[in-house]
Design a protein that fits this description.
Length: 265
């Protein structure tokens, strides 16, 4: 392993510890099941006290551990620049978290320039931790993962993320295209976990028309390591603003891409 690769591996191990502690903080602050706890930024777009607390916790820890690294958070924006840059979504799936549901995660990705190189996604309420280091594998709770072997769209399970930034007509058009393939549609409320589900074979594909870097930064190394087909999210503007993503197992990727008119290249 080169010295640079060793530096990434060391950072990933440190990030794993920091994210574990951040997940414990989020669990301690977790609302009880019921009506949403938090403030509504816009339709179905929630912010809780935990989002800010978890992001601040991770930001402080990473600054102490790696003061030379850049840092970008969903809530705080780009706090520091650096060749290596951490990108955090403190609570991905806030609408679920705010209602005491289980499908949410803490997501922390590492970019080397404009290349995702490592990531940690922890879903504390589910007892699951995904890790990946490009060139060194992708894992769920320490065990290697792989994409689904499903080849027929009529046997596929496809998730599509919803956003109030997408016109209803566009969402319905894409969802209709998925169903016309014969695939089973899903929508779970966490982009990071949906992408991780593609990486481990629980889903055959995931689509979101408008999604941000912090939602996908930790998942992109997972997808790369398992050979998933992924649209060029970063090249299409995802480094600096919202963009569209399609990720799928390679057996159905072309059919899904054609059906929903989202190019893979």
């Amino acid at each position: 392993m080169s010295s640079h690769s060793s530096a990434i591996a060391y950072r990933l191990e440190a990030a794993r510890s920091v994210v574990r502690d951040a997940g414990q903080l989020a669990m301690a602050m977790r609302p009880a099941p019921g009506g949403p706890a938090g403030t509504q930024k816009s339709a179905q777009d929630w912010l809780t006290e935990t989002d800010g607390a978890v992001e601040a916790f991770i930001a402080d820890r990473m600054k102490t551990l790696f003061p030379e690294d850049g840092f970008q958070g969903e809530e705080g924006g780009v706090a520091r620049d650096g060749q290596l840059r951490w990108v955090v979504d403190p609570i991905d799936g806030t609408s679920n978290y705010a209602r005491g549901r289980n499908r949410w995660c803490v997501s922390l990705g590492l970019l080397d320039g404009d290349k995702p190189v490592a990531g940690v996604i922890e879903a504390p309420a589910l007892g699951e931790v995904y890790t990946a280091h490009v060139g060194h594998g992708a894992f769920l709770n320490g065990k290697p993962i792989q994409v689904s072997p499903v080849k027929e769209p009529a046997s596929a399970m496809i998730e599509m993320g919803w956003s109030n930034r997408v016109p209803r007509e566009v969402f319905m058009e894409k969802m209709d295209a998925i169903m016309r393939l014969g695939a089973m549609p899903r929508s779970g409320g966490s982009g990071a976990l949906a992408l991780a589900d593609v990486a481990c074979g629980r889903l055959d594909g995931y689509i979101e028309i408008v999604i941000n870097l912090w939602d996908v930064a930790a998942a992109l190394p997972l997808l790369a390591e398992v050979g998933a087909s992924v649209s060029p999210f970063l090249a299409n503007g995802g480094l600096t603003g919202p963009a569209t993503i399609l990720a799928a197992n390679p057996h159905i990727a072309e059919a899904l891409s054609a059906a929903v008119s989202i190019p893979l290249k």
